[in-house]
Write a structure and sequence with these properties.
It is a single chain. By secondary structure, this protein is α+β, with helices and mostly antiparallel strands. The chain has a single domain, classed as Gcn5-related N-acetyltransferase (GNAT) (Aminopeptidase). This is Acetyltransferases.
Length: about 140
């Protein structure tokens, strides 16, 4: 990843994390650490850059965990952002299908979060077979 790529991904992350699609806003220091971990040696996170016609169209980040509920690898889609000019072109659908193919036979569950206000994303995820969970997720930051 070049410095220019990092700058473009950081700008997209800033748009994503400043939008209503995300509950918890993150400072640039955290976002830069996320990028560094994606291209570094961290085995728990992977980063993707979407390109179309030679232009960066968006990005995604996934994290790996273990699901005791399903007995195996769980892939969390942490971020998925498509620039407005590239939305509606099937990039998100293609990415989710790519993940299923990439982890076929290894992952037992794919998981993501979406805000109720983000109906376009919820529609895409539903069409790809994702379902709303019937319980509340809780967190504690340390």
């Amino acid at each position: 990843m070049t410095i220019q790529d990092t700058d473009q991904v950081l700008c997209m992350m800033r748009v994503f994390y400043d939008s209503p699609a995300v509950l918890h806003k993150a400072p640039n220091t955290i976002l830069l650490q996320d990028i560094a971990d994606c291209v570094g040696e961290c085995p728990f996170i992977e980063g993707y850059i979407f390109e179309e016609d030679g232009q960066i169209a968006g990005y995604a980040m996934t994290a790996k965990s273990y699901s005791t509920e399903y007995g195996g690898l769980c892939i969390w889609v942490e971020d998925i952002y498509i620039k407005p000019a590239f939305q509606g072109r099937g990039i998100g659908k293609a990415f989710l299908e790519h993940l299923e193919e990439q982890y076929r036979g290894r992952a037992v569950r794919f998981r993501l979060e979406a805000e109720d206000e983000n109906q376009h994303a919820i529609h895409l995820y539903s069409k790809q077979g994702y379902q709303k969970l019937p319980y509340v997720q809780m967190t504690k930051e340390v």
